[in-house]
């Protein structure tokens, strides 16, 4: 069973081209964001555990489902995870997965991969002493074509969100949302929203939604739908917050305003200024992608220059940019996004490339520079 660090290479998978960010500059905004708190860091760890089926090609869907049980096993038995999170965390809904068949070119037997994963963990936050529920949504699986092409890169068409004056989201975001919204808990048959609806009757409840990369596109959508359900049904005992990590932009300017207004101060995004993925799909940010790693130093230390796109890759990017320039995609509440500068990776053997740096900045830089996970926790995530 092959295992890599979970990273969501939407651009790497789809066009094998785009890979980074600006010359260290996001559009300036009046920021209300603060660095991740200790509770935020623990939510981030729960987020990363959702990528349990990353890079796994299995002989059956049963094998994929069985592998997701490793999440609860880590919460219950991994000493490093329990030391970091606390000892009473457990999976209470899911993990639920959506899979695709992977056609084999070398064998008569086909295999299966997971496209989307979502679970809910309940535990006591060590800082506040409050019981909370964390909804964690996985990012793109590197072996899933559906995740990359159907969800990540499906941005030419758009779909109405559905609420009055709520704008549009990309067709890929809508597909991912519909998949998650239809998922059911294997034990109870409840959808996520049905399960969360039961929390209102149990007294005050804290529900945090989180996801990395594609999961950071979809977690605000699931949170928003639950907030709308909360308003429609008059839930008064549930507080909702959102913690997306390294996410692309799910919707247009009107949607961003609507979602930001619904989330208010409960929105806590984290993005790396040296990461490509948050630069999709807001056009002023997207256009800066090719120039990301051109400077040495800090990138490619010891080399004669930075990392660049090849001519073919640049042409592919330019073609896509013509489409994005016609769109009005906009990030949700940028003033509430914590933007950090991921430190450049070092390649002592001279093997660094544009895409290796992109992978590092999209995953490891978050572990080290944003959340400052101890190495034991990083090892637990990557296991």
UniProtKB/TrEMBL annotation:
Write out the entry's keywords from A to Z: Signal
Q: Which SUPFAM superfamilies match?
A: alpha/beta-Hydrolases (SSF53474)
Q: Which residues form the Fungal lipase-type domain?
A: 178-281
Q: Which domain of life is it from?
A: Bacteria
GO BP annotation list:
lipid metabolic process
List the PROSITE patterns hit by this protein, alphabetically: PROKAR_LIPOPROTEIN
Q: Where is the signal peptide?
A: 1-19
Give the matching PANTHER family: ALPHA/BETA-HYDROLASES SUPERFAMILY PROTEIN, FUNGAL LIPASE-LIKE DOMAIN-CONTAINING PROTEIN
For this entry, the protein name equals Lipase class 3
Q: Which organism is it from?
A: Dyadobacter fermentans (strain ATCC 700827 / DSM 18053 / CIP 107007 / KCTC 52180 / NS114)
